[in-house]
């Protein structure tokens, strides 16, 4: 895992509101560029103080998300963006993820298209989601944001 100087030499962070992809419990995700190829990437910034679950990669503690992304990258999961780099930068970790050419974010699609999805689009999105969950489970990873509701039996 690199440091702040490595990150600044290799990547350029997006700097306006259109470069913002999303926000989670531990940080934010922005669009950025890999300088060497002028290739778009996703920059996931995770504040260290907000990390609850830690894992271990090569004997060092990292957020569990980073550890899981490393596992999924070696498993070649086609429905999950691969991790490209990681950096330990002061008060946060920065993970660089690929952006997929034929894919956007669901929220981005909804912002741009004010009309609801048609059933074939919903079917495709749901099928891809199930495939991604299956790939995670086959790699021994269960995403904690996916929950099931237990209904009482009668």
Describe the 3D structure:
By secondary structure, this protein is α+β, with helices and mostly antiparallel strands. The mean pLDDT is 83. The longest helix is centred in the last third of the chain and has 20 residues. It is globular and about 45 Å long. The protein has one domain: 2-Layer Sandwich (Phosphorylase Kinase, domain 1), CATH 3.30.200. Strands 1, 2, 3, 4, 7 and 8 form a six-stranded antiparallel sheet that branches. A two-stranded antiparallel sheet has the order 5-6. The termini are far apart. It contains four helices and eight strands. A hairpin with a 4-residue loop joins strand 3 and strand 4.
CATH topology: Phosphorylase Kinase, domain 1
Question: Number of folding domains?
Answer: 1
The largest sheet, given as strand count, sense and whether it forms a barrel, is:
6 strands, antiparallel
Write the CATH homologous superfamily: Phosphorylase Kinase, domain 1
């Amino acid at each position: 895992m690199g440091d702040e100087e490595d990150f600044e030499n290799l990547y350029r962070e997006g700097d306006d509101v259109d470069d913002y992809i999303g926000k989670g419990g531990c940080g934010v995700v922005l669009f950025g560029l890999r300088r060497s190829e002028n290739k778009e990437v996703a920059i996931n910034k995770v504040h260290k103080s907000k990390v609850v679950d830690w894992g271990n990669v090569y004997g060092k503690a990292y957020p569990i998300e980073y550890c899981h992304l490393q596992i999924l990258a070696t498993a070649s999961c086609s429905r999950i963006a691969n991790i490209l780099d990681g950096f330990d930068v002061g008060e946060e970790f920065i993970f660089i993820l690929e952006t997929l050419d034929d894919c956007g974010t669901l929220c981005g699609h909804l912002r741009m298209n004010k009309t609801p999805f048609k059933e074939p689009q919903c079917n495709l999105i749901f099928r891809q989601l199930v495939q991604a969950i299956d790939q995670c489970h086959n790699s021994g990873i269960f995403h904690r944001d996916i929950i099931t509701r237990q209904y009482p039996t009668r």
